C-alpha cells in the first residue's frame, strides 16, 4: 500500500511540474513580442503589425487508491496479504485568440499608425444590437397595450 | 478549490525591443493583464502605444495605438443602453400619464 501511495505522490508531483511548464508557455503571450510582429521591410517602408492576444487555460489532476475489501477480510492473523491498487490522471484545456489592431508604417515621410477595422465584427455587433433593440421595443409595445 | 491568496493578478505595461530604421527608433509598448491561479490562468495582451525617437533620445513622441473596432463595439453597446433606458423611461411615463 505504501508503494502505491509513493507512486501516487510521485505522479502528482510530476503532473504539477507539467502543469507549471504549460503555465509558463501560456504566459509567453504576455510578452510584447507576442503582440508586435517582426518588422517587414519592402520598397523603403518598414511595417510592423500590432495584434490583440488572449490566451487561457487550466488543468487538473486526481489520484486515488484503496485496498480490496476481500483481501482485508480473508487476511489470517500473522499472514500479510496485500491486494491494493491506485490510479491517477491529468486533464486540461485551453485556447487562444488573436486579432489585428493596427499596422505601424515607418517610411520616408515618417511614422504612421494605421488602424485595422474589422468590418465583420462591427456588422455582427450592429445586427445583434439592432435585433435586441427591436425585440425589446416590440415587447414594450405589447406590454403597454395590455 | 483555489485559495484567494494563490490567485495572482498583474496589469502591466511592457516595452518591447526597439526597431531602428534610418534615424528613427520605434519602441512598441503593450499592456498585459495576467491572471494566474494554481491550476490555470489567462493572459490578455494588447498594443498600447509606440515611442518614436527622432534625432536621438531627446525628442520622443508617443503615438497611441487605437483599437477602432473595439471603440465602435463599445460605442454601439453604450448607444443601445442609453436608447433602451430612454425608451423604458418614456413608456413608464406614458403609462403613468394614462392612469
Decide which structural class fits the backbone of chain A.
Answer: alpha+beta
Unreliable stretches of chain A (pLDDT < 50, length at least 5) are none
**Largest sheet geometry of chain A:** 4 strands, antiparallel
Distance between the termini of chain B: 54 Å
The whole-angstrom Rg of chain A is 30 Å
Please write the string of helix (H) and strand (E) elements of chain A.
HHEEHEEH
Q: How many DSSP E strands of chain B?
A: 5
- Sheet with the most strands, sense and barrel status of chain B: 5 strands, antiparallel
Total number of helices of chain B:
1
Topology:
The complex is a heterodimer of chains A (146) and B (99).
Chain A: H1 2-26, H2 32-35, E1 40-42, E2 45-67, H3 69-73, E3 84-107, E4 110-115, H4 119-145
Antiparallel strand pairs in A: 1-2, 2-3, 3-4
Chain B: E1 8-15, E2 19-21, E3 24-37, E4 40-54, E5 59-64, H1 68-98
Account of the 3D structure:
The complex is a heterodimer of chains A (146) and B (99). Chain A contains 4 helices and 4 strands; from the N terminus they run ααββαββα. Chain A has 146 residues and is α+β, with helices and mostly antiparallel strands. Chain B has 99 residues and is of the alpha+beta class. In chain B, strands 1, 2, 3, 4 and 5 form a 5-stranded antiparallel beta sheet that branches. The relative contact order of chain B is 0.13.
Amino acid at each position: 500500500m505504501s508503494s502505491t501511495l509513493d507512486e501516487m505522490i510521485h505522479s502528482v508531483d510530476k503532473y504539477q511540474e507539467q502543469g507549471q511548464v504549460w503555465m509558463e508557455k501560456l504566459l509567453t503571450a504576455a510578452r510584447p513580442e507576442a503582440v508586435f510582429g517582426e518588422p517587414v521591410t519592402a520598397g523603403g517602408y518598414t511595417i510592423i503589425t500590432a495584434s490583440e492576444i488572449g490566451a487561457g487555460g487550466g488543468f487538473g489532476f486526481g489520484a486515488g487508491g484503496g485496498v480490496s475489501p476481500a483481501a482485508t477480510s480473508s487476511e489470517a492473523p500473522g499472514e500479510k496479504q496485500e491486494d491494493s491498487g491506485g490510479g491517477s490522471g491529468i486533464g486540461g484545456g485551453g485556447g487562444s485568440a488573436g486579432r489585428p489592431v493596427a499596422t505601424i508604417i515607418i517610411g520616408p515621410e515618417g511614422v504612421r499608425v494605421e488602424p485595422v477595422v474589422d468590418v465583420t465584427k462591427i456588422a455582427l455587433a450592429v445586427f445583434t444590437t439592432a435585433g435586441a433593440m427591436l425585440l425589446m421595443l416590440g415587447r414594450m409595445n405589447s406590454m403597454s397595450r395590455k | 478549490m483555489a485559495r484567494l491568496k494563490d490567485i495572482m493578478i498583474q496589469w502591466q505595461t511592457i516595452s518591447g525591443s526597439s526597431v531602428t530604421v534610418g534615424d528613427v527608433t520605434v519602441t512598441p509598448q503593450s499592456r498585459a493583464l495576467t491572471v494566474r491561479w494554481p491550476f490555470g490562468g489567462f493572459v490578455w495582451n494588447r498594443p498600447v502605444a509606440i515611442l518614436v525617437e527622432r534625432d536621438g533620445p531627446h525628442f520622443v513622441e508617443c503615438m497611441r495605438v487605437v483599437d477602432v473596432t473595439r471603440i465602435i463595439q463599445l460605442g454601439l453597446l453604450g448607444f443601445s443602453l442609453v436608447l433602451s433606458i430612454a425608451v423604458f423611461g418614456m413608456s413608464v411615463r406614458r403609462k403613468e400619464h394614462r392612469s
